[in-house]
Specification:
The structure is a homodimer of 307-residue chains. With 307 residues, chain A is α/β, with parallel strands linked by helices. Chain A has one domain: Aldolase class I (TIM Barrel, Alpha-Beta Barrel). Chain A is built from 13 helices and twelve strands. In chain A, the strands form three sheets. The first copy, chain A, has an eight-stranded parallel β-barrel with strand order 1-2-3-6-7-10-11-12, surrounded by eight helices. In chain A, β11, α11 and β12 form a beta-alpha-beta unit. Chain A starts with a helix and ends with a helix. At the A-B interface, α3, α4, α5, α6 and β4 of A face α3, α4, α5, α6 and β4 of B. Chains A, B: Belongs to the OMP decarboxylase family. Type 2 subfamily. Chains A, B: InterPro entries: Aldolase_TIM, OMPdecase_AS, OMPdecase_type-2, OMPdeCOase_dom, RibuloseP-bd_barrel. Chains A, B: One of its GO terms (biological process) is 'de novo' pyrimidine nucleobase biosynthetic process.
């Protein structure tokens, strides 16, 4: 089971951090961006090359500290097809370095369209007589608003190819309450969404008890996080909102089960933009990211025992 | 206002059809796919070239019949970065032919990530001193599960660049009821979602009364469609589910206002795979698509008066 692989990496490194590789043109140190713009002009292709060089440096600096990385697709799509090519290269490089790679794509659709998304990010497509894997991520985030029809095709791919998804349940943003906290009978909507995904994937629990259908639950709602941990005993959590969005190590402690398992905590800007605070114009971006990831690991270890 | 442009195209052609450009490798006539595989081998790049040739033929055959096309991004992402490049080329070609082009991407996220998505599909990004438009679609579909934080950044881009979005409200699939029909106080969840987007975009109504925030409402729920039309007087509808998914012209009539305005009806497979029924191995794929689009236009004109 895919989350077994992730859990074992977490135990080996005693660190449940996933580093968000979420570049914006401004986040790439100027010396890297300028070199690529000089080579290819002020083009999306040049910026995409700069993204990849930045990511490669980050991955090299982080791969023995964090078990996983999570590129946010939006920032790559922002550079058009060249950006998506940089995303694919980043994923392949991170996998080669032993990292568990999560595509933060929040895809959602139904029927053959959902099948196409799941084949794109987690599966394969048949071209002529060849079976090709377009991106081959380990896991992807999805949005479950469309119900079972929008989730089941992804779970099908997960079962077949030993992959996993994280379904949005309770997101970290201030207005997540507008729809997600609406009361539906005895439950809130986000609880209903959580119950649905736990039920859909019940048959896939791995050796640590977690199914292939995880949940996204924000660090910025620690009470909800704790109560969802109790409610969804077989659901692995991806927890955004740590660091830049305001969640601290104490806030995310409730995401873990009694053995310190069952969750990964994402941090993006705090790690990849750590160089902005060192006053060295990003010449030390990799070391700065590494130092920040070590600091976060220390803070998490103080709150949770990762056996 | 972006929906004014679409509405005027609909009035000019007396046709509210949007043709879904949703290719799968199997949907491309064999003579096209085989030629590209012979050129570039059994690769994602070859399949992407075949997609584009197929789309170009469809667009040429449809551009004086339908006002709009809607490529579903999943099928392009299925071919990795090369597929996304074919999507960008398809969008540019369709725009050059005078079509209104909707990106069916169902993107969703918050804060700077939502800004990146909206800049990618509807806006621009600054690279060095240049302002570049990565895809430059006229409109995009989005998923509103994250609330205002996930919708507002898109509306910001729409206001600035005269673009539009369609937010998922009531989707066409059988299990859409699981979450969307849950009762929240006096309303169903999908009604709450509809009310939210109508309120968020109120200040953007154009000359036909419609704001830049449209809604996706499935043809397979004609009663809900009719009651949402009454409820959301300023919200333009994108209606999937016609044809292959079972909705007929009578089912979608309720999507239009008393002047026959305010909605586009999507058909994908029935149009782009029409060649599969003519027994000519797809040599006539463009004519077959055109004939099917003319038939659909006729059926819609019988039910609604498009002034």
């Amino acid at each position: 089971m895919s989350f077994d692989i992730l859990q074992e990496k977490i135990i080996a490194l005693k660190n449940p951090t996933v580093a968000g590789l979420d570049p914006l043109p401004d986040y790439v140190p100027k010396h890297i961006m300028d070199r690529h713009l000089a080579l290819k002009g002020e083009t999306l292709e040049a910026a995409a090359d700069a993204y990849f060089e930045f990511n490669r440096g980050l991955i090299d600096a982080l791969c023995d500290i964090v078990p996983a990385v999570k590129p946010q697709s939006a920032y790559y799509e922002l550079l058009g097809p060249a950006g998506v090519a940089a995303l694919a290269k980043t994923a392949a490089y991170a996998k080669a370095k032993g990292l568990y790679v999560i595509a933060d794509v929040k895809r959602n659709d139904i029927g053959s369209t959902a099948e196409a998304y799941s084949a794109a990010y987690l599966g394969t497509v048949k071209i002529g007589g060849s079976e090709l894997a377009p991106f081959d991520f380990d896991a992807a985030t999805i949005n479950g608003y469309l119900g079972t029809d929008g989730i089941a095709p992804f779970l099908e791919t997960c079962r077949r190819r030993n992959k996993a998804v994280f379904v949005l349940v309770k997101t970290s943003n201030p207005s997540s309450a507008e729809l997600q906290d609406l009361q539906v009978g005895e439950r809130k909507l986000y609880e209903a969404a959580g119950d649905l995904i736990e039920a859909l994937a019940r048959d896939t629990a791995g050796k640590y008890g977690y199914t292939c259908a995880g949940a996204v639950v924000g660090a910025t709602y620690p009470e909800e996080l704790k109560s969802l941990r109790r409610r969804l005993k077989n659901t692995f959590f991806l927890v955004p909102g740590y660091g830049a969005q305001g969640g601290g190590a104490g806030d995310v402690a409730g995401a873990f089960d009694e053995n310190g398992r069952g969750a990964v905590i994402n941090s993006s800007r705090a790690i990849i933009c750590a160089w902005k605070k060192t006053g060295r114009d990003g010449l030390d971006f990799a070391e700065a990211a590494r130092a920040e990831a070590i600091k976060m690991r220390g803070a998490l270890r103080e709150c949770v025992d990762f056996r």
